[in-house]
Amino acid sequence: MTDTADFFVRAHTLLDRLEKLLPGDTAPFHAAGSFAYRWQARGLSRSLVAVKNTSSIGLSDLQCIDRQKQEIVRNTRQFLQNLPANHVLLWGPRGTGKSSLIKALLNEYSTKGLRLIEVEKQHLIDLPVIVEMLHGQSGHFILFCDDLSFEADDPSYKAMKVVIDGSISSTPENILIYATSNRRHLMPEYMSDNQQSRMIEGELHLSETIEEKISLSERFGLWLAFHPFNQDQYLVIVDYWMTKLQLRNLDMDIIHKAALKWALEHGSRSGRSAWQFARDWTGRQLLK
Prior knowledge:
The protein has helices at residues 2-21, 66-80, 98-109, 127-134, 155-165, 191-195, 208-217, 231-244, 252-266, 271-287; strands spanning 25-26, 36-42, 45-50, 88-91, 114-118, 140-148, 175-181, 198-200, 203-205, 222-225. It has 288 residues and is of the alpha/beta class.
């Protein structure tokens, strides 16, 4: 009797493990009632879940990245007007406005039919499933993949390559991928990769490793580079947020000195750091 009970316990344990390896049920999706969604995978269930509280950031809130704003706005407008448009890769250091820019696009163009779907890195392997769910849906969907980076042989890396350009089936015209990354080529680069490259008859032939690493990033038709802010730009952003937060009787000389000290202590003159300083300073003054 004990052996029989032990057998069933072990059998149930084995079945639980096997279930995790099997494809799960996908809940039906209808794009109505929300502008933003998040891909959610729990156990065997996978679905697009509406995001109730989205960021309120606007395009005008993003300072000192005018060129990047102009390019991505133009591409998004083309997309919304059913004109040819490209997938977009936004790359550069942290805190320079990459993710905020995509969120601001939703606030600017949600009334024009723009929908944003956030897909976390661990769920990128489900991209083909998500695209299939969106096929035939009304509206224009941006699949938002934030803070991407891959290691060699990462299965999610290959899934994204297939969705963008590399499958027998094409991605619907009402779907684009906007991705952010700290790496231009999304994967780590090593000196040894360059050493494998060769000059053949006067032409540079990159190593197979390098070719593989740039094969995903080159599938994005529009690359937008973000760079660290200099001191003057950082203070411009600080001034903007101080004005936005409507704190009165400001002594900007004192504020600028405090803001520069804040940046030094946090190791970053980023837009995020300027926003955090403005909130901290304003909160302290109002608390008094």
